[in-house]
Amino acid sequence: MIERRRTRPLKVGSVAVGGGAPVSVQSMTTTKTADVDATLAQVYALKGSGADIVRITCNDADAAAALAEIVPRSPVPIVADIHFQYRLALAALEAGVHGLRLNPGNIRNPAHIKEVAIAAGERGVPIRVGVNAGSLDKDLLEKYGAPVPEALVESALHEIHLLEEVDFNDIKISVKHSNVPSMVEAYRLLADRVDYPLHLGVTEAGPPPAGLMKSVAGIATLLLEGIGDTIRFSLTADPVEEAEAGRKLLEQLGLRERAGLDLIACPSCGRAEVDVIAVAAEAQRVLEAENLPIQVAVMGCVVNGPGEAREADIGIAAGRGKGHLFIKGNVVRVVPESEMVAALLDEARKLASEGVEARLAAADGDAEAMAEQAASELLASQGDPNQVRELRERVARVARGE
């Protein structure tokens, strides 16, 4: 049994970090954030692969505006990765993100950092102080001569001090290095200085298999010492591989339980046509009894559901009294709303025994057309129930400093 270091608790959306909470898995999207549909599809794929939290770059005003639409449709908490412009952090907060990542090497004006901290504190949003050896402040590089562990820790402590000056304490910290021994030593030094939760990672680990080996060497070493509250594998690969690797590592170390059925569901919104929570709970109950090793999605509406959850083996999306059953994003059957869970169970059994290709071949010929018609009718009748357009415009104004 690993005796974990005790840290302060905080919450990234619905996910507890620190304070003895299970070690969480993070990853980061590689899509253009402004492409809302592609980004959400990757978020859902990451959720299905074991990610508890997903980070998304917020590198310009278009990305910030897109977050206003992505966040309410995401199945996991979203952290905005802020680069050089502090106003984008303010815009991301306006968009409703669940966390921020600030790099002390990029945003250096203390007044700007404090302004972001105050705004985050008002919303109850945590900040990760994300120190990276590749972007260390030039003054620290001159002082130490290289991005040594001591330099990374000093950078983190300086940023923490600025946040604490405005009474902001919802902080987690990373001190990432591409050199495994340096990364391990930096986190050990930091763990001796603070009780904030730590986000572990080997930065720029590279492609598998070498990248996997470096990440496991650094992250596992620290976890076995009880250090670390959330992790990310930074691989030059499909981010799904990061999430899968992180989850498997935690399972192997006994820090997370192995999962059987993997059920994902949208967070529900103004467009949802059913009680997503109730349907998802019932679906989980009946499918867990079958012990089927599949990934299932329950989506509140047919407008976005099949596309966002296209990586799921099977799913159901609601629309105008109907349930639209889909396999790998392709709608295969349309059933009455009252039969949604029963149809999902029936198709899941067939999928497990016959395979994806056979079940796609057996799809009802008019199912896709019926789904498209239902989606069009919903859009026409509901308009913008989530007020996304208004929020996007408001976020964009904040990003531009208006």
* Most strands sheet: 8 strands, parallel
**Which regions are unreliable across 5 or more consecutive residues at pLDDT < 50?**
none
Shape: globular
Distance between the termini: 54 Å
Instruction: Let me know the number of strands.
Output: 15
Task: For the structure shown, list the relevant keywords.
single chain, 402 residues, TIM Barrel, Sulfite Reductase Hemoprotein, domain 1, 2 domains, eight-stranded parallel β-sheet, 18% strand
Describe this structure in words.
It contains 15 helices and 15 strands. The chain is of the alpha/beta class. It has two domains: 10-252, Dihydropteroate synthase-like (TIM Barrel); 262-382, Sulfite Reductase Hemoprotein, domain 1 (2-Layer Sandwich). The strands form three sheets. The protein has an eight-stranded parallel β-sheet with strand order 8-7-6-5-4-3-10-9. Helix 8 links the parallel strand 9 (199-200) and strand 10. Helix 1 runs parallel beside helix 9 and helix 3 (86-95) runs parallel beside helix 4. 52% of the residues are buried. The mean pLDDT is 92.
Brief write-up:
By secondary structure, the chain is of the alpha/beta class.
List the helices and strands and how they pair.
Layout: E1 10-12, E2 15-17, E3 24-28, H1 36-48, E4 53-58, H2 61-70, E5 78-82, H3 86-95, E6 99-102, H4 110-123, E7 127-132, H5 138-144, H6 149-165, E8 171-176, H7 180-191, E9 199-200, H8 210-224, E10 230-232, H9 239-252, E11 262-265, H10 276-288, E12 295-299, H11 305-308, E13 314-319, E14 322-327, E15 330-336, H12 340-354, H13 356-361, H14 367-382, H15 388-400
Parallel strand pairs: 3-4, 3-10, 4-5, 5-6, 6-7, 7-8, 9-10, 11-12, 12-13
Antiparallel strand pairs: 1-2, 13-14, 14-15
Helix pairs in contact: 1-2, 1-9, 2-3, 2-15, 3-4, 3-15, 4-6, 5-6, 6-7, 7-8, 10-12
